[in-house]
Amino acid sequence: MKVGVVGAGLMGAEIALVFALAGHDVLLQDRSEEALSRAIERLRTLFDKGVAREFYESDAAKAALGRIAPVASISAMADCAMVTEAVPESLETKEEVLRVLDEACRPDCIIASNTSTLPISTLAAFLRPERRARFLGTHYFSPVSRMKLVEIIPAFATAPAIADDAITILEGIGKQPVRIKDVTGFAVNRMLHAMLIEAVKLVEEGVAGPADLDTACRLGLGHPIGPFAMMDVVTSDLCLQVQDILHDAYGERFRPPALLRQRVAAGYGGGRGNPGWLEESQ
């Protein structure tokens, strides 16, 4: 099966990788040639470090990077059987991409969005009515190369058979799909950000520091990574963006803490080259 991924950032690149590891030919598109080059180099580094160790002896693994073809235009995806949109979490950006995909993709193509918070039925409105039955949400978790979970979110108009097909496809690339109702933030992000908000409030109140709270979550709750280490990886900027969306949808229980907003504004959001919570606490 030939598949496409639009957006060569952290999520999009690894979505492309897991499809390639399963033997599919993948077209990876981004409007930036530099982003595409960085994505391929990062995937090569991930592969060399053994993120796909269980696939090492298979022919698919040996050819995995060769199966990913960077392309400059979405129009190159005209013959893909499935295309996943993995562009930034902006309604305007996703609208632009989905409208182009609607025109470019063949009629029987499944179009999926990797949005982590935006309602799928809202995004479906950017597609022509005849396309909406084949559109749904597939919310992967970072790092995609190691996290097995994918939330499957049918929109109002998604055909049940298409949701079933998507589950079969994702199981075929080694993922564990769970079917979730189409609500803002879906399920996992609502649980996660309730915890992240409370963790930042504990720091605001002087109850404990970020490093100690991370230790408490790892040793007391069995979490593989603490909330502040997670925010440093995915960036506090993205966490704030998600919490603003959740706050708009659900009210005060998801209001972003003032400290989080202040740190993001000051450039302490973590990620590549920026200080984060743990660096600050050391």
Low-confidence stretches at least 5 residues in length (pLDDT < 50)?
none
- The number of E-state strands comes to 8
- Average pLDDT for all residues: 93
The chain-level structural class is alpha/beta
Span between termini: 48 Å
Order of helices and strands: EHEHHEEHEHEEHEHHHHHH
**Mind describing the biggest β-sheet?**
8 strands, mixed
Please give the order of strands in the largest beta sheet.
Answer: 3-2-1-4-5-6-7-8
**Which percent band covers the strand fraction?**
5-15%
Tell me roughly what share of residues is in helical segments. Answer: 40-55%
Shape, per Cα inertia axes: globular
Supply the number of helical segments: 12
Radius of gyration: 19 Å
